[in-house]
Amino acid sequence: xxxxxxxxxxxxxxxxxxxxxxxxxxxxxxxxxxxxxxxxxxxxxxxxxxxxxxxxxxxxxxxxxxxxxxxxxxxxxxxxxxxxxxxxxxxxxxxxxxxxxxxxxxxxxxxxxxxxxxxxxxxxxxxxxxxxxxxxxxxxxxxxxxxxxxxxxxxxxxxxxxxxxxxxxxxxxxxxxxxxxxxxxxxxxxxxxxxxxxxxxxxxxxxxxxxxxxxxxxxxxxxxxxxxxxxxxxxxxxxxxxxxxxxxxxxxxx
Length: 254
Hints:
The chain is 34% helix and 19% strand. By secondary structure, it is α/β, with parallel strands linked by helices. The protein has one domain (19-251): 3-Layer(aba) Sandwich (Rossmann fold), CATH 3.40.50. It has a seven-stranded mixed sheet with strand order 3-2-1-4-5-7-6, sandwiched between helices. Helix 1 packs parallel to helix 3, helix 3 (62-74) crosses helix 4 and helix 7 packs parallel to helix 9. The longest helix is centred in the first third of the chain and has 16 residues, at 36-51.
C-alpha cells in the first residue's frame, strides 16, 4: 500500500526551513544525532505520500507539523529527562501515525519503544516508516488497550507509558496505568485546560495505583505550544479487574 515517494520535475520538493525545528530542539536541550534530522525529514516525506492514500492526519504543512506534532511529541522529555539515558521501555498508546513515538525514538534511539493502536492501517504505516527509517528496537501492536493490557507480556512491563489526545484523563488512566510498572511513569499529553479532568481523576488514581506527581507546562520551553504534561507515578499494582472490557472505561469512567 505504501511506497517511498519519488520527486519529479513537475512536482518540486517542498522548501523546508528547519530553523524552527533546531530552535525547538535547543529549547528542550536535545542535541540530535547526525542522522536524526534527515530521518525526520524522510518520515515527513513518507507521511505526506501515505496520507494521499490513507487518511492519517489533516496537518501536513511542514512548519505546522514540526510544531504541532514533532516538537509537541518531543516535549515529553520535559517530564521524563531519563529519556536522555536511553534505558527506558516506552509504550505509546493510541500512536496514530506515530506520534509521539516516532520523534521520541529518532531523538532518543537507545530506548525500547512499543506503539499501540487499534487501527491496522495506522500501524501498517508505522511499520513501513520504521523499516524505511532503519529504526531498531521498535515493536508495534494492533489492538485495543483494554484487551492488550490483560496480556502478561505487556501488563506492568513499561517504565514509561505515554498517550497523546486519546481520551479524558479518568478514562486514560484506566487504559494506561495497567501497562505501567510500579515505580514507572505515565505521561498524559493534554491541553492547557486539563485541570477539570484532573479534578475528576481522584477515584481512578486510587483504584488503579497512580499518583499525580506534577503537571508540566510545555509552554515554559516551547512558547507556541500551550499544552500540559500530566505526570502520574505508578505507586501500586493495578488490580486485575482493570481495565474493564473494551468500551466500558469510556462509557462509565471510574
